[in-house]
Amino acid sequence: MFKKDNLALGIVLGFVTPLLAFVLYWLYARSSKGYSFQEMIELISLNHFFLLPKVMSICLIGNGIVFYLYTRRRLDTTAKGIFLVTMLYAIIILLLKIIK
């Protein structure tokens, strides 16, 4: 699966990787501050203009890692899909910062 080089796989990876990174971020927050998943979502939704861009930016680190791995393997079409979704996330983050 990870050896295929197509745009659809890159787009799917671009959307799924930040979600997995958010779960890892929650596990870290849970271990250090004791938040449940529901409490974490409520905290972000109550302060969404302040916390959401920050959490999204942290979660995009996962996309950077996956993008790096696919460019090292010369699977450039998949890397383009990951980059496309990362730029979409970046635009959303900038809009949230501007609306604030």
UniProtKB/TrEMBL annotation:
Keywords, alphabetical: Membrane, Transmembrane, Transmembrane helix
Top-level division of the source organism's lineage: Bacteria
Transmembrane portions of the chain: 7-28, 48-70, 82-99
UniProt name for this protein: Uncharacterized protein
Organism listed in the record: Chitinophaga skermanii
